[in-house]
Write a structure and sequence with these properties.
This protein has 296 residues and is an alpha/beta fold. Helix content is 46%, strand content 23%.
Length: 296
């Protein structure tokens, strides 16, 4: 088996098309077919079934694909190691972030240091929900992600970076603003502005009201923490957020933070990545900087 044959095989398995695979590996369709024929001759078994112009993996193809993914990953990681030895500062960091708070601070500071320590590194950042980011890490489209915890995947390693208490936020002239705390029932009766479904924080809030037997009046679902806080500032409703995410607005008097009775819930930010024995240098640097900045 040759690596080029295995890459072609993987491309067909992923695209389910000889034509699309040929485009991906920059070969003619005839060359792709020849490589697969040679591979099937060597293995002594068909790897693909062609039915009504559609391509399906055979049982043997499925077995080979699992091995091929590992072989190609090990090969690419070996080349990456050698490249790092030959040229300091090079690397790749494909990062996903589900935390608007972290995107404002401390992520810009961390990435600034990354560029100083790895001046030739290719850094990309993608915004998404925690579930979306974890899925992209598992698919190999992202290297690391700043996500809300917990993460339900045995293939993902997570490191806790920040734990924060959830509190209600209200405008300064709201009737809850001067109270030491507020009950779940009183909060559920208010127009509630929450994060969009799919995030761990939203799930915790929904479960909290569900266990209390309450049905809150949700009037808005927003994907932006900044937008959510602005809506509350303008008196359109109240919300439940991590306490540190509203620290600036509370300090300036734009919002009030009020603890919710019996809500012993915390918001946790963690760094997620595949459970791999190999961690590229730029990822090692990012992990180290995350621990330092989030601890501060």
């Amino acid at each position: 088996m040759e690596l080029r044959q295995l890459r072609t095989f993987q491309a067909i398995a992923e695209t389910r098309s000889f034509t699309k695979a040929a485009q991906r590996v920059h070969l003619t369709q005839a060359a792709v077919s020849a490589q697969i024929k040679a591979l099937e001759t060597e293995t002594g078994t068909p790897l693909f079934a062609r039915i009504n112009k559609k391509v399906y993996l055979t049982e043997a193809g499925e077995v080979l694909l699992r091995r091929v993914e590992r072989i190609l990953r090990e090969h690419d990681e070996a080349l990456y190691d050698l490249a790092e030895l030959g040229q300091a500062g090079r690397g790749r960091l494909r990062l996903g972030t589900a935390s608007t708070m972290a995107s404002h601070h401390p992520l810009p500071q961390i990435l600034s240091e990354i560029k100083r320590e790895h001046p030739l590194a290719q850094v990309t950042v993608l915004r998404g929900t925690s579930d979306e980011i974890v899925a992209k890490i598992l698919a190999g489209d992202l290297d690391l992600g700043l996500v809300s915890l917990p993460v339900d995947s045995s293939d993902i390693r997570t490191d806790l970076l920040l734990r924060d208490q959830l509190v209600a936020i209200v405008p300064p002239d709201h009737r809850f603003a001067g109270q030491r705390n507020v009950s779940a029932a009183h909060l559920a009766a208010e127009p509630l502005i929450v994060g969009e479904e799919g995030g761990n924080t939203r799930r915790k809030i929904d479960l909290f009201f569900e266990k209390a037997g309450l049905h809150p009046k949700i009037i808005m679902e927003l994907g932006s923490m900044a937008g959510l806080k602005k809506m509350v500032e303008h008196g359109l409703g109240v919300s439940i957020v991590p306490q540190s995410s509203a620290r600036e607005e509370v300090s300036s008097g734009k919002l009030r933070a009020v603890p919710v009775r019996a809500m012993n819930l915390s918001f946790e930010i963690g760094l997620a990545g595949l459970k791999s024995h190999y961690i590229p240098p730029v990822q090692q640097t990012f992990r180290r900087l995350c621990r330092r900045y989030f601890a501060a």
